Amino acid sequence: MNRRLIVAGNWKMNKNLMEAFTLASGVLAKAKKMSNKVEIVLAPPAPYLHTINSMSKDIAHVNIAAQNCHFESNGAYTGEISAEILHSMKIAYVILGHSERRKYFQETHEILAKKVTTAVKAGMKIIFCCGEPLEIRKSEREESYVLKQLEESLFHLSEAEMQQVVVAYEPIWAIGTGETASPSQAQDMHQFIRMQIAEKYTSEVADACSILYGGSCKPSNAAELFAQKDVDGGLVGGASLQAEDFLQIIQARAKQA
Ligand code: PEP
Q1: What is the pLDDT of residues 97-155, one digit of tens each?
Q2: 178: pLDDT confidence band, cut at 50, 70 and 90?
Q3: Minimum-distance ligand 1 atom for the alpha carbon of 168
Q4: Cβ atoms 80, 114 nearer than 8 A
Q5: Distance CA 108, CA 174 (A)
Q6: Minimal-distance CA residue to ligand 1 atom 7
Q7: How much distance in Å is there from the Cα of 75 to the middle of ligand 1?
Q8: Considering 87, 107, 170, 190, which one is annotated as catalytic?
Q9: Radius of gyration of the chain (CA)
């Protein structure tokens, strides 16, 4: 298996300036001494990206992610940030398709497809989020729901471009709710996603694509989730806001590397 093991922390719209630098410093001080078998990704609010990227530049297994970008590469879009700008700042990743962006900012499949294209063309790596709401899971339609998200917003990429993509499976019913998908629910969906990538592209592309689990991932459940063969790491929200919890999740991934 040649895919990367990744633990990413999505800070969302949390932490003031001092808190953000305290959290980043706490994580980076320990990350420096950790095995480089696990790639650590920090996604702070946009105003902190540049400084936190500079703080982490000497630790090769740490990368920084933006939480969003616009679908155009530049222009009169007041308040927006483009993938070109992020790439010029040497920000490695952008998270796209997060359920909060889909819900609160009306990001449709079509808009996301454009964002994916623009980010990839700018040279960024993407963490592409997908995942079903509770009513879809209850009616056992989660696979077709997630497949549509992939087909409509991701599968237009070429085989070469897919190498810039990390997928994050985040069941919406598990995000910020304390409710986690069981290890077998996570494994089943990750395996399904990998199969779809293999069918659309090749088994080599599918094998190389890291698929992260997100949804109330925490120190107490990380190890059993990461023990699943298609769960390559985690996209962590709430538990990434405390250095100690986030570091424990990284350790759980490293132990099974
Ligand atoms: C997320 O929003 O990406 C997420 C996984 O959040 P939480 O860990 O808080 O459920």
Answers
A1: 999 999 999 999 999 999 999 999 999 999 999 999 999 999 999 999 999 999 999 99
A2: confident
A3: 3
A4: no
A5: 21
A6: 237
A7: 32
A8: 170
A9: 17
How many other CB atoms sit within 10 Å of the CB of residue 58?
Answer: 9
CA distance 114 to 106: 14
Which amino acid appears at position 64 of this protein?
Answer: I
Catalytic-residue membership of 98 = yes
| DSSP result, 204-228 | HHHHH--EEEESS--HHHHHHHHTS
Q: Residue 4 gets which letter from DSSP?
A: P
pLDDT, one tens digit per residue, over 54-102 is 999 999 999 999 999 999 999 999 999 999 999 999 999 999 999 999 9
How high is the pLDDT of residue 179?
83
Query: Is residue 102 helix, strand or coil?
Result: helix
Pick the catalytic residue from 98, 132, 142, 190.
98
Instruction: Say whether 170 is catalytic.
Output: yes
Residue 40 pairs in a beta bridge with 7, 62
Phi, psi of 211 (to 5 degrees): -120, 120
What is the CA 136 to chain-centroid distance, rounded?
22
Question: In which element (H, E) is residue 167 found?
Answer: strand 165-169
- Which pLDDT score is estimated for 1? 67
Ligand 1 pocket, residues with Cβ under 6 angstroms: 10, 170, 175-176, 214-217, 235-239
